[in-house]
Amino acid sequence: MSNRKNGTLKFSLFSDFHYLRGHYINTLGDLQAILDRAAASEVDLVIQAGDFCQNRIDSPELDDVYLNNRYGLPVYGIYGNHDMEWHRRDQSNNMKLITPLLTNDQSVIWGTEDGSFAEDGSIAYYYFEANGFRVVCLDSNYSWSAEREAWEHNLPGSWGAPEGNERVNSLAPTQLAWLERVLSDAAERAMPCIVVSHEGFSTLGKNSPDSEVVREIFRRVNAVRRGTVLMAINGHWHTHNIKIEDGVFYLQMNTSRCAAENYAIRDLPPHYPEDMTYDIFAGYGEDGGMRFDNVPLNTAERAASCWYFRDALNAIITVTKDGKIKMEGMETEWLGGVEPPQLTMYMKPYVMSGEWELNLQP
Hints:
Elements lengths: L7 E7 L13 H13 L4 E4 L11 H7 L8 E3 L17 H4 L10 E2 L15 E5 L2 E5 L4 E4 L4 E4 L12 E5 L1 H17 L4 E5 L13 H14 L4 E6 L6 E5 L2 E5 L5 E4 L15 E8 L5 E7 L9 E3 L6 E6 L3 E5 L1 E2 L18 E2 L2 E4 L5
Parallel strand pairs: 1-2, 2-3, 6-10, 10-11, 11-13
Antiparallel strand pairs: 1-18, 4-5, 5-6, 7-8, 7-9, 12-13, 14-17, 15-16, 18-19, 19-22, 20-21
Helix pairs in contact: 1-2, 4-5
C-alpha cells in the first residue's frame, strides 16, 4: 500500500478484459498499459470487475503480468459470467483453479464461516480493507434451480447459468446475508465501503435480480451510518454510466477493449483491414522471458464477430471518507476507425472524467 493517509483511497479500475489468446485480440501489452498507468498514478491498488479471462488454465502469462506485476501492486478481481467458460468443456477451468487467482493479497477475508479460503474455491466473495475503507468483492454468478430446489453457481466450462435455471446473475441468500453482515459491521466501525460486482444493482438498465434487495441493504446500513456504502461498481454491460441513488454512487464500468460481439456473423468476412496486426503471446524463451508473435489481426478466431477499442480503457478513481469522488477516465477511438453496425448511444470508447460530492449530512 502507499503512504496515503486513512480517509482517502486511490485505485485503478478496469473491467471485461476478455483475455482469450487466439480468439480475442486483447494483449498482455494492454494489461501492462493499465498497470503502468496505475503505477504512474501512485494508486493504492488495482481492481478488475469480472470477465478477466475466458481460459485461465492455459493463460499463465496473464497471471505473470497481473498477479506478479512488476510494481508489486495489490490487485483484486471478481468472477464475471465468462471467467469459467472455455469451449473444451473439460471441467479444467473451475473454481478451485480460478478463485485463488482473483487476488495476490493473502489477507483478504473470504465469505466462509471463519473468513479463510475454501480449499475447493467454491466461495469467491470476499472483502479487504485499505486506508480506512472496506472493499467488498461479490460473486453474481448464482441462479435458482426449481428442478433441484437449490441455488447453483455457474458451472465449469460454462459462460452462464445452468440451463433452465431462474434468477440468473444473483448473489443467492447466503451471500446476501453475508453482505449485510459485512456492511453492518462496517457501519458500526465507521468504515466507508466500496462494493464491486459484475452485475449491477442500481436502476441503470438491466441488472441483477437481487437489485432491489441489495439497494434495501444499502439503505439500511446507510441509515445506521450515512456514507457506509459510498460506491457500487459493476461491469458486464460493456457500457459506461453513472447514477447517484440514495446517496450511493453507482458506476457501470466500460469494457477495456472488447466493445461488441455478434455471434451470428462469425462466418462473415473480417471487417478489419488485412494489414492490421497484433502481438500474441507465443510462450517463454530459454531465459524465461515472454515471446510474442506479430500476426494479422484477422487471424483471430473472433475477428469477424467483434469490434474493439483502440486502447484498453481504465480509470483512476480517488474516494474520500467524506464522500468526494474523483474519476480520471480516458478517451480512445474505435480500432481502425471501424464501428459496429448497431452502434448505440451507450457504446462509446470512453470512460468519463469528473468530480462528485455525495451528501452525507443526516
